[in-house]
């Protein structure tokens, strides 16, 4: 494939929230058959932030291991993609400047378009690096998926941040130059400024996701992208993990391709393992899926991976990359699994109280008691100023 100088993901790390709620507990309290969540949605648990965690603390925790390993030389841009903004004006990335000891010669920006904007960040980073291959760009996708209590979206909540260092001659995933796009103005999911929870037309959102990913694939192919048969794995945006199965079956259907269910499962399963335990993490979800694939799949060296990004509203992008030789040496697989296992189990009552507490504190000065085990925490909001602390 033709293209820009070799650009892609040189390092990738993630963080999630302090608490975990088992979806069996949620099902029991809601009087729902747990199989609806485990089988119907393909979700087993969801990460729930402590009161002193937010997208900034998760973003810092995700990025810190990357900066410890690579330092900040030639790092001139940090792009934070989120739809859980903490301010209407100031970029959440700015709070990372002191928390991560970033150089004062850094371009720090926040990007928004529902779950899609991490992919925009990746493409913008590729452009910056094509202009100056010595530059390195840090992208952080960080989100907390919150729906109303007792709503259909509730079991798909979750929280995570994925940080990626994007460079020339990357060690993990080299991006192909072809990418396919689809956009449409549609009200399938949105969150007006006065709300902390999303409004969603569930059925429309699923239908639009299917249409958009299929159309993005068609554009990808028209622009010289790989064929279906070339891919060793497919990573989809994962609002819940059965969405990837639905999307892939839909894509095969539109292409008239008939694949055995076992083959579909083999090509999707490894990318859904972490998300099944964490829930939707909006912008981070696709990249958590990629990380899950890299951590679980048999050797992917020199194999192609397809990525389908979708953000409600909507923008979708299909793109791809080749896994680099030696990539496993750069992963943190044991650490990643430990991080998920180390979350603190919470009761249903505690979960409800935390969910309600979030809105009760909105716009009111408050100091937060230490709760999270993360090295980064939100300590207080006074005069509408957010104060963060690193351990
Ligand atoms: P719902 O109405 O609770 O669920 O909402 P359902 O009745 O449609 O059931 C879900 C599945 O479980 C169905 O499977 C049922 O058959 C099955 P399907 O027919 O779809 O294959 N089921 C069972 N399976 C086994 N045993 C049982 C059982 N009972 C039922 N006993 C919905 C589901 C996804 C709409 C809801 O969770 C929701 O509103 N979620 C939020 C929106 C969402 O995730 N949309 C996805 C596409 S949009 C997107 O991905 C973007 C997003 O991430 C936001 C962004 O971009 O910023 C959300």
Task: Characterize the structure shown.
The protein is of the alpha+beta class. Helices cover 36% and strands 27% of the residues. The chain is built from eleven helices and 17 strands. It has helices spanning 23-30, 34-41, 55-70, 92-99, 117-131, 202-222, 242-255, 261-278, 285-296, 333-341, 348-360, and strands at 7-16, 19-22, 45-48, 75-81, 107-111, 136-145, 158-168, 173-183, 189-190, 199-200, 231-236, 304-311, 315-323, 344-345, 366-367, 376-382, 385-390. The strands form four sheets. A nine-stranded mixed beta sheet has the order 5-4-6-7-1-8-13-12-11, sandwiched between helices. It has a three-stranded mixed beta sheet with strand order 3-2-14. α4 (92-99) links the parallel β4 and β5 (107-111). α3 crosses α4 (92-99). The longest helix is centred in the middle third of the chain and has 21 residues, at 202-222. The mean pLDDT is 97. Bound molecules: 3-hydroxy-3-methylglutaryl-coenzyme A.
- What percentage of residues falls in helices of 4 or more residues? 25-40%
Q: What is the element string, with H for helices and E for strands?
A: EEHHEHEHEHEEEEEHEHHHEEHEHEEE
Q: Count every helix, treating DSSP H or I runs of 4 or more residues as helices.
A: 11
Mean pLDDT: 97
Name the ligand types. Answer: 3-hydroxy-3-methylglutaryl-coenzyme A
Poorly predicted segments = none
List the helices and strands and how they pair.
Layout: E1 7-16, E2 19-22, H1 23-30, H2 34-41, E3 45-48, H3 55-70, E4 75-81, H4 92-99, E5 107-111, H5 117-131, E6 136-145, E7 158-168, E8 173-183, E9 189-190, E10 199-200, H6 202-222, E11 231-236, H7 242-255, H8 261-278, H9 285-296, E12 304-311, E13 315-323, H10 333-341, E14 344-345, H11 348-360, E15 366-367, E16 376-382, E17 385-390
Parallel strand pairs: 2-14, 4-5, 4-6, 11-12
Antiparallel strand pairs: 1-7, 1-8, 2-3, 6-7, 8-13, 9-10, 12-13, 15-16, 16-17
The site of 3-hydroxy-3-methylglutaryl-coenzyme A (HMG) has 27 residues, from helix 2, helix 6 and strand 12.
